């Protein structure tokens, strides 16, 4: 079966750094996505990792270790607007499969 | 460039009825995906269409079905609605499947079954 684990909730202070972890056990792994979803809105794409290592994109960075089944999303210089759910999703690649398998998401609350 | 669009934004039905949800992908995208996001749960994969064909489906009963039209827009049909079908239904689109394409999501249709 497929499984993705993320913390359910996190709280961090404006201006700080927060790391959201994601561990996965899936078959047919092809890459890992991070999406941001504000309450009542559609998920928006943040990052995609297919190779091991760190991908940096402005205030957001994402890391992947395929051998460990582990990823994290790093948010720097937190802003109030970063309060949202962060979804870790694995791109499954196998016979006929091309969908994303999502974790339940981590709800991040940024406090002043 | 227009993003993924979905209609209607909200839909209220009663148990046993049928619901039809619509999705228009980003121009140039041939793949459309449907996901269900029930309250407190993660996104659950429903269906994947590409070039008019159903390519894969998630672990949902057959009363969840759909199709993709020649212009790549898609329809999700849910028959014999049950209370637990109440959820946000998200459509996503991507370029032709290569294994590394990004899926872009629409705003969703919120279905409420009474």
Can you characterise this structure?
The complex is a heterodimer of chains A (112) and B (114). Chain A has 112 residues and is an all-beta fold. Chain A has strands at residues 3-5, 9-13, 18-25, 29-37, 44-49, 53-57, 60-65, 70-75, 84-92, 100-102, 106-111. In chain A, strands 2, 4, 5, 9, 10 and 11 form a 6-stranded mixed sheet that branches. In chain B, strands 2, 4, 5, 6, 9, 10 and 11 form a 7-stranded mixed sheet that branches. The model of chain B has no long low-confidence stretch (mean pLDDT 93).
How far is it from the N-terminal to the C-terminal residue of chain A, by CA? 41 Å
Percent in strands of chain A: over 45%
Number of strands of chain B: 11
- Mean pLDDT of chain A equals 91
Radius of gyration of chain B from CA coordinates: 13 Å
Structural category of chain B is: mainly beta
Largest sheet of chain B: 7 strands, mixed
Approximate strand percentage of chain B: over 45%
Which word captures the global form of chain B? globular
What oligomeric state do the depicted chains represent?
heterodimer
Q: How many extended strands of chain A? A: 11
**Element order of chain A: H for helix, E for strand:** EEEEEEEEEEE
Name the shape of chain A in a single word.
Answer: globular
Instruction: Please mark out the parts of chain B with pLDDT under 50 across 5 or more consecutive residues, or reply none.
Output: none
Task: Considering residues with a beta carbon less than 8 A from a beta carbon on another chain, report the largest interface and each chain's count.
Answer: A-B, 26 and 26 residues
Summarize the structure.
Chain A is 0% helix and 59% strand. By secondary structure, chain A is mainly β.
């Amino acid at each position: 079966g497929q499984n993705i684990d993320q913390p359910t909730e996190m709280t961090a202070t404006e201006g700080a750094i927060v790391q959201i972890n994601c561990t996965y056990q899936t078959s047919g792994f092809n890459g890992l996505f991070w999406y941001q979803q504000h309450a009542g809105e559609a998920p928006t794409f943040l990052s995609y990792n297919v190779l091991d290592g760190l991908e940096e994109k402005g205030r957001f960075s994402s890391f992947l270790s395929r051998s460990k089944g582990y990823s994290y999303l790093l948010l720097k210089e937190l802003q109030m607007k970063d309060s949202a759910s962060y979804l870790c999703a694995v791109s499954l690649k196998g016979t006929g499969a091309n969908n994303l398998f999502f974790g339940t998401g981590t709800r991040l609350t940024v406090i002043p | 460039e227009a993003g993924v669009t979905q209609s209607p934004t909200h839909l209220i039905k009663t148990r046993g009825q049928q619901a039809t949800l619509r999705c228009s992908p980003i121009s140039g995208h041939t793949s459309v995906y449907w996901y269900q996001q029930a309250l407190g749960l993660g996104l659950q994969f429903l269906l994947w269409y590409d070039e008019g064909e159903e390519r894969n489906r998630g672990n949902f009963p057959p009363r969840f079905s759909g199709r993709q039209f020649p212009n790549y827009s898609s329809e999700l049909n849910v028959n014999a609605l049950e209370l637990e079908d109440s959820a946000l239904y998200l459509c996503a689109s991507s370029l032709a499947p290569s294994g590394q394409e990004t899926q872009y999501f629409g705003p969703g249709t919120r279905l409420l079954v009474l």
